[in-house]
Design brief:
Blueprint lengths: L7 H20 L8 E5 L2 E3 L1 H17 L4 E4 H6 L13 E8 L1 H5 L6 E8 L2 E8 L6 E5 L4 E3 L2 E2 L13 E3 L6 H10 L12 H9 L5 E6 L2 H13 L3 E4 L11 E7 L2 H12 L1
Length: 269
């Protein structure tokens, strides 16, 4: 069942406003941001995460009757919330502060991610950097936009010149060792501890590739669509396509399929 998408710019405006009123005030007053651990010292939550998600949830649901919401913080409290992405109803997927570790340390590398998914397919995606105002948007089949201009991924390059993010978090030690060895034959490694910021670099043509091993939908549903609509190629390590219904596996994004094949051999063997 196809749905009529809400106005893309209206969604962007809601995201901007919530980021301004509910998220940035805590970044400018970290002493009162309520930083605490969820599962460990590298997995944090702040009052900004909770306030942003709490504000966006009814606003987005109200734009599309019959839709549901899957927020990272709601899912951390009740894993059953993740099941919403498998249903037939359209679902808004929210990561209110992607890069919470950076946020909590006062580093300006975080962003808001929103995706609209139905039937295991991402229909639209948004990534917003509240500090510099960048807003990336994409609708399936309509290209990717960054601040109102059409964007394209970086052209293919020799492996030795490929810049990107090769994460070794959330993977087996032997895989991490293989990746660490493989990046030695590539260009500069730029890992930002924020998938959103790494996706923005791909859209701006500043990075050629990204590699991830944990595929929570709030981290990647919007970014994979944006990258594809900007002309990029991505797939899981076994060559199968990404889906926002996935939570595990290894995802590799590249400028094109030939580059993907070369990077896969270089990084994963």
């Amino acid at each position: 069942m196809s749905i009529a998408l809400p106005d893309i710019d209206k969604v962007s405006a809601l995201i901007r406003e919530v980021a301004k009123t509910e998220i940035l005030p805590y970044f400018h007053d970290l002493a009162n941001a309520g930083v605490r651990e969820k599962t460990g010292p590298m997995d944090l939550v702040t009052l900004a995460d909770e306030a942003g998600e709490r504000a966006l949830t009814p606003l987005l649901a109200g734009l599309l009757p019959g839709s549901t919401v899957l927020g990272e913080e709601a899912a951390s409290q009740d894993e059953r919330v993740l099941d919403r992405v498998h249903g037939d109803a359209p679902v808004w997927i929210i990561d209110p502060v992607d890069g919470t570790l950076n946020f909590a340390q006062g580093r300006p590398l975080f962003a808001v991610i929103v995706a609209l998914v139905q039937g295991g397919r991402t229909l639209a995606g948004w990534i917003h950097d509240p500090l510099d105002g960048r807003m990336a948007t994409a609708v399936a089949g309509q290209g990717a936009m960054l601040d109102g201009r059409r964007v394209h991924v970086a052209p293919a390059a020799p492996l030795s010149g490929m810049v990107g993010a090769a994460s070794t978090r959330f993977c087996a030690p032997e895989v991490a060792a293989r990746v660490d060895e493989g990046v030695k034959g590539l260009g500069e490694k730029v890992c930002l501890s924020s998938a959103a910021q790494e996706y923005l670099r791909l859209l701006e043509g500043r990075s050629h590739y990204s590699l991830y091993h944990r595929l929570m939908p709030w981290d990647h549903a919007a970014g994979v669509l944006l990258h594809a609509e900007a002309g990029g190629y991505s797939a899981l390590a076994d060559g199968s396509p990404y889906s926002p219904t996935l939570t595990g596996g290894t995802l590799l994004l590249a400028p094109d399929e030939a580059s993907w094949q070369a990077l896969r051999r270089q990084l994963l063997g």
